[in-house]
Amino acid sequence: MLERELTVSNRLGLHARATAKLVQVLAPFRCAVTLQAKGREVNAKSIMGVMLLAAGQGTPVTVRTDGVDEAEAMQAVVDLFENRFDEDA
What we know:
Number of helices: 3
CATH architecture: 2-Layer Sandwich
Largest sheet: 4 strands, antiparallel
Shape: globular
Order of helices and strands: EHEEHEH
Mean pLDDT: 95
Low-confidence stretches: none
Number of domains: 1
CATH class: Alpha Beta
Distance between the termini: 33 Å
């Protein structure tokens, strides 16, 4: 299992478009991926789950990956967060 803390840095936070992009990026991976923020832990492959976090800009989020391709999935999530979900271009 891998764990990393990231900060939501895109201006609109984990809104519908960013959440859909996250779920789409994670879909090919076989490992389990969870996000934890504000005392809640959700399945990162679930649009409704991620939306329930209501994580705005500046919210710290803990990402956990567990399974056969956990390192690749973690890198995909880190890249998405670091690129601000490709919204600030």
